[in-house]
Amino acid sequence: MYAEPLIKLAYASALAILVMAVSYLRRIEIGRDFSFAALRGFAQLMLLSIVLTYVFTSTIWHIFALPIFIAMALLAGYTSAKRVGMPKATLITTPSIAIGATTSLAAMTVLKVIPLQPKFVIPLAGMAFGNAMNICSLTLNRLLSEVRNNRSRIEAMLALGATAQQAVEQYERTSIKSALIPSIDNMRTLGIIFIPGAMTGMLMAGIDPTTAAVYQISIFFMIISSGIVAAVNATYLTKKRLFTPAHQLAEDV
């Protein structure tokens, strides 16, 4: 049953060998990181496939889905916090990502865009949490960079009577907009430059191309909505760290 997919995986591994060979020959020095990432990704996907095989066939999949969603939120928050490099950043990233992802996913199910079935809800939850994580990381990295680079200007605005919100508002907008650019660019080029993974998978499964296209654009709406909600929440929570209750820029920024 599993022999044929494993044989195909072995053949596909030739591409991994190509990556390592180019890395070695050109001294790019990503061979070790790539190997570790590939092995870790393979192990995680195999474990996930075992779990999902059981969950998809269970009549009480809702009970199993909840801890899966919690694990996604915690891991996404932790990963995003590591990228941001701010003390106790998980207290910002985790709730922001969780709110963004669950909001968009709930809307998709309540509006019946996707069926309330585990084979739809759980994979799409992974997409929502993953993309919210990336957008949250990009937003906070850009926001902290903007604040640090414009510290004197922000302090001047505060000295002239501006509130913390007024002093940092333009940098919040810039950060969120910058973080959303890759997702918006991907949506702008759908079907022209590339066929996204979800649509590719549906086409390979024999789904009608029109139906696959409708689902794909709906997924992109979900991705961007989860990202912008996560980004707005993250900037709001971060602002409380950046400024004191007296609307002064914190010393450790």
From TrEMBL:
InterPro entries: UPF0014_fam
Chief location bin: membrane
GO cellular component: plasma membrane
Pfam family, one: UPF0014
TM regions (residue ranges): 6-25, 37-55, 61-79, 91-114, 120-144, 187-207, 213-237
Keyword list, A-Z: Membrane, Transmembrane, Transmembrane helix
Compartments where located: Membrane
Membrane topology: Multi-pass membrane protein
Family: Belongs to the UPF0014 family.
PANTHER family associated with the record: PROTEIN ALUMINUM SENSITIVE 3, UPF0014 INNER MEMBRANE PROTEIN YBBM-RELATED
Name of the protein described by the UniProt record: TIGR00245 family protein
Organism: Archaeoglobus sulfaticallidus PM70-1
Lineage, top ranks: Archaea, Methanobacteriati, Methanobacteriota, Archaeoglobi, Archaeoglobales
